[in-house]
Specification:
Layout (H helix, E strand, L loop, with lengths): L6 H4 L20 E2 L42 E5 H4 L10 H5 L2 H7 L3 E5 L2 E3 L13 E7 L6 H13 L3 E7 L2 E2 L4 H5 L12 E2 L7 H18 L3 E5 L5 H13 L5 E4 L16 E2 L17 H6 L20 E3 L23 H9 L4 E5 L43 H19 L1 H4 L10 E3 L2 E2 L10 E5 L2 E7 L6 E7 L11 E5 L7 E5 L7 E7 L9 E8 L3
Helix pairs in contact: 7-8, 10-11
């Protein structure tokens, strides 16, 4: 969820006052997610306004590098309850999710953002079960399964080559949570109709519980990292969590929701950049949809406000196509909250080939027809008009759609795009935002090019990938005027291979003209058609 103080996305409601909590789901049968922590070696943190902002940071290494697999992540968000429906709507479990792992492996995603594992309320937000209505972060929700089933799920993902990030609700718990009665000194005030942790008090017992609980979750179950909702609040604690996991031989990634870019503590944010502008309005593309190179060059490399005074060294860029917050309160009731909506141009040109970690919501990959859970309300609180909501967290994935030609064709194309990103990872992997990105716009000429997205090239050494988009409904023949100099190459002959939609469809050689420019003819099939909307070519120097 977005920070309640973010006026751009949350101006319709005063979230700080929120609504009253729904009745807490029965605690009987709740299974511990992590054992009660033993006494910690964390020293008591200073209290009061004079305490240093990061009291534990000084006691830990200056920074811990991201795991080697971070740059190759393609992150797919799953809301556990609605992703599968083994017993009807909102009945997804760890076991039913595990049965979908072969599908996810074939799709090619390498990271799962799992939003749904710990004990939570079933009605508080939008009248459905959500991880964000957290009751106890370290107790398994029995409606999802057991601790053993959860551990087997994580192991099955790992055997498929897929990493798992859990959602962490960092601001607080439901008002009825037993934690409040057991530890009243841990809490103060509230947001989102919930009771907030008192992070400013720097209570040693709260700090210890938080650090050891998440370290145990990572090391006991094999979880590969955490997406932290709303804010880190205490970066020093997350650095300590990271340090302990690394010391245990289990390095993790930390992904905050906002762009809290802290070298050595966080690795990337959920949405450093976005393809769509807002969660509570009909889909409107950012500059990513028209000029990817310009979009990236304005956000990477040079010092500026987005880089938070160069604290972001070692942080990877991220690009969010969609997430559970699409279709937020105020979203047009008859509009589709998914972003790509079958556009290969959007999914390919504007998203998957960018020099950033891609993040997208389940269903995008096959142009899912949005179907709300029967109880999903349009309003954040209150539960009115059930079944009329558009919040993407409440999307009920209807898997038989995948067998229909339109959806099957989109799925095939998206899987091919992800396969290209993986096959050419030396060129197409995510890059760090503190570095000058290896991306440049490529001029085009020809009929019908007015208003087309600007093609772009990404490179590494003597290999480059050219990406072009066609959002129109007609086939186009255009000419890309590629300058080898933008890649640091001499003006020589190049070999160009068309690799979309099938590998190595054709290979041709083109010589640079007297101005050092190579003219490359491109054929772009119409968008919203199989193999259309985007074009992808490799470019390599000939006669090195």
């Amino acid at each position: 969820m977005s920070n309640p103080k973010n006026k751009n996305e949350c101006s319709r409601r005063d979230f700080l006052k929120g609504g009253s909590a729904a009745t807490l789901m029965a605690m009987l049968g709740a299974v511990p997610l992590a054992a009660q922590p033993a006494p910690s070696s964390i020293s008591a943190a200073p209290k009061g306004k004079d305490a240093p902002e990061d009291s534990l940071t000084a006691k830990a290494p200056a920074g811990i590098r991201a795991p080697a697999w971070t740059k190759d992540l393609v992150i797919y968000e799953i809301a556990t309850k609605g992703f599968t429906s083994p017993s009807g709507p909102e009945s997804g479990t760890f076991k039913s999710l595990q049965a979908k792992i072969p599908y996810l492996k074939n799709l090619g995603v390498s990271g799962i953002w799992l939003t749904g594992h710990s004990l939570s309320d079933s009605k508080h937000f939008y009248n459905i079960w959500t991880q964000y209505a957290c009751v106890d972060p370290f107790r398994m929700d029995p409606s999802l399964g057991t601790a053993d089933e959860f551990k087997e799920l994580i192991g099955a993902f790992h055997r498929a080559g897929i990493h798992v990030l859990l959602d962490v609700i960092s601001h607080g718990v439901m008002n009825n949570s037993p934690l409040i009665k057991e530890h009243p000194d841990w809490f103060k005030g509230g947001t989102w109709g919930m009771t907030d942790y008192d992070w400013k008090a720097r209570n040693p017992a709260l700090d210890r519980w938080w650090v050891e609980g998440w370290v145990d979750t990572a090391t006991r179950y094999g979880v590969d990292g955490f997406r932290v909702d709303v804010s880190l609040f205490r970066p020093d604690l997350w650095l300590e969590i990271r340090r302990r996991c690394a010391a245990a031989g289990h390095p993790i990634v930390i992904c905050p929701e906002p762009s809290e870019l802290i070298a050595g503590t966080t690795d990337f944010s959920q949405s450093y950049l976005r393809v769509s502008r807002a969660n509570n309005a009909a889909v409107s593309l950012t500059q990513a949809g028209t000029d990817m190179a310009g979009f990236i060059l304005s956000a990477y490399g040079a010092p500026g406000p987005r880089l938070e005074n160069q604290r972001a060294k070692g942080i990877f860029g991220s690009l969010q196509l969609s997430c559970h917050d699409g279709g937020w309160e105020g979203f047009p009731p008859d509009s589709n909250p998914y972003v790509a909506q079958g556009s290969r141009c959007v999914f390919g040109y504007a998203f998957i080939f960018a020099p950033a970690i891609p993040v997208f919501m389940s269903g995008e990959e096959f142009d899912c027809d949005f179907q709300p859970l029967p109880t999903l309300s349009p309003g954040l609180f209150g539960g009115k008009n059930p079944g009329k909501g558009r919040w993407l967290y409440g999307s009920m994935i209807v898997w038989p759609q995948v067998d229909q030609p339109r959806h099957r064709a989109m799925l095939k194309d998206v899987a091919r795009m992800i396969a290209i990103r993986r096959e050419y990872a030396d060129v197409l992997a995510a890059e760090m935002i503190s570095d000058a990105p290896r991306i440049a716009a490529v001029p085009i000429a020809g009929d019908g090019t007015s208003g087309l997205p600007k093609p772009y090239v990404r490179w590494n050494g003597e290999k480059a990938i050219l990406i072009a988009g066609n959002p129109t409904g007609k086939a186009l023949q255009v000419q890309a005027n590629f300058s080898p100099a933008v890649c640091g190459w001499p003006p020589k002959t190049v070999t160009v291979t068309d690799i979309w939609p099938t590998p190595a469809r054709s290979t041709e050689t083109f010589a640079a003209n007297s101005g050092g420019v190579v003219s490359i003819p491109l054929t772009l099939a119409p968008d919203h058609t199989p193999g259309g909307g985007v074009g992808v070519w490799t470019i390599e120097l000939r006669g090195k």
